[in-house]
Write a structure and sequence with these properties.
Order of helices and strands: EHEEHHE
Radius of gyration: 15 Å
Structural class: alpha+beta
Number of helices: 3
Largest sheet: 4 strands, antiparallel
Number of strands: 4
Helix content: 25-40%
Strand order of the largest sheet: 2-3-1-4
Shape: globular
Strand content: 35-45%
Length: about 110
């Protein structure tokens, strides 16, 4: 398994805008090898909110296939030169190779 996380820090009170965008159906959802996308929000801070999307892939190769797909590349071309909304403070993307998964009782 291979995991990509996208953490977006935003000004407090704006998480609904980001959640809406990340929760919509996307072309990636039909991609071979995608396990799921999980969208979470942390609103504990009074200064900012944090929206985290976890994208789980069957393999690193499946993710690479998405990265080099025409639909993914075209999406980036269409957004080239556009500024992110003013309420976005920062975005951080990380990738992880999964080495172990321990299932809990609820997964049976």
């Amino acid at each position: 398994m291979f995991i990509v996380t996208r953490t977006t820090i935003i000004e407090a009170g704006n998480s609904e805008e980001v959640l809406k965008r990340f929760s919509e159906d996307k072309p990636v959802d039909g991609m071979e090898g995608l396990i799921d996308r999980i969208v979470m929000v942390n609103t504990k801070s009074k200064e900012h909110e944090e929206v985290v999307m976890i994208i789980r892939w069957e393999s690193k190769e499946a993710w690479k296939n998405w990265e080099k797909s025409d639909v993914h590349i075209q999406g980036h071309r269409e957004n080239r030169g556009q500024q992110p909304p003013a309420y976005i403070i920062s975005t951080d993307v990380k990738t992880y190779d999964v080495h172990a998964v321990k299932k809990g009782k609820a997964s049976n």
